[in-house]
Write a structure and sequence with these properties.
Layout (H helix, E strand, L loop, with lengths): L5 E3 L10 H4 L4 E10 L1 E5 L4 E5 L7 E9 L4 H11 L11 E10 L5 E9 L1 H10 L12
Parallel strand pairs: 1-7
Antiparallel strand pairs: 1-5, 2-5, 2-6, 3-4, 6-7
Length: about 140
Amino acid sequence: MSRLPFFVYGTLLRGEGNHDAFLRGRTLSETPAILTGAVLYEGPGYPYAVEAPQDSGAVVHGELVTADPAAYAQLLHSLDELEEYAPGDPANLYERVARDVTRATDGARVRAWVYVAAPTVAAELRASGQLIKGGNWRPR
């Protein structure tokens, strides 16, 4: 499995509720970044990124988090548990997928792990969810 950085866009952002508990002291860098081809929906206290066509112009704002190599395995496990993700489990709320994100600082495209809404959740959100305009969790 690749040791990709993580793209975070909700409660794991700096200053949000889960940042300190999961990321503090386990990262080398946290850089503003954008995920294209996704929209953001309100969840019960946290957002869901839902994939959209790449040419839709949809974006999600967040941060690219590079983990400390010594903490990577533990961090990956902790984030999978937080996001209630288990490979192949049909009950997943999120799926962890590798996607390209764009660093805001220099425009570089970087492959990263992103937790996106699982297919069943995504279908429910598209049908009746509350879209977060502009794809930015912070000013909601």
